[in-house]
Amino acid sequence: MAPTEGFEKDVGTKTSHMMLNGESIYDLWDDLNDTKREINKIRQFKTLNGSILHYSKVRNNKIPRILSGLNDKLKRFLKQHHINITLAYAQRNMANPVNVRWALTPTTGIMALFLDMTFCDRITIYGMWPFPVDPRGKPLNYHYYQVGTEQLQNERHTYNTEIHYLAKLHSKGVIKLVIQPCR
What we know:
The chain is mainly α. It has a domain at 13-93: 2-Layer Sandwich (Barnase, Chain D), CATH 3.30.370. The chain contains seven helices and five strands. It has helices at 8-11, 22-32, 35-47, 62-80, 96-102, 108-119, 159-171, and strands spanning 17-19, 52-55, 86-89, 124-126, 176-178. The protein has a three-stranded parallel sheet with strand order 1-2-3, with helices on both faces. A two-stranded parallel sheet has the order 4-5. β2 (52-55), α4 and β3 (86-89) form a beta-alpha-beta unit. The longest helix has 19 residues, at 62-80. The radius of gyration is 17 Å and the shape is globular.
């Protein structure tokens, strides 16, 4: 799960919607089954109070079973610590229609955008640049909070297609795509 604490200057202070990828689901399960790691989750979840925690890429029968167990565990955890987070996940794979059109698996970021376009009047996307260097040639981390990690090239994703799609949405005024440094 992407933290906001310590990165407020870059990502702001309010999270309305956080989408988990498959790896995050397993990490969260492990965190909630380890007392030491669970303590760190309390603080992180408090920063998400009032938001939606969502997983949309249900690819196989294993994920819904894990989500069902995780959902129950998370509900107890959130209630115990007085944290108000809505838990949501799709019963069917939202990525399938995109897979058919783009021939590869969409990133969690683009899936979050599709869902957010359903609920939000204005969408501004900061820093979604799926390449190892930014437009000015500066090396980028895979995620903003993982210092020292290289941008990974994943053969399952269509990064070029996604960034062109985002640019098209930006040019039509559907979203605001910000890839320049914030001022």
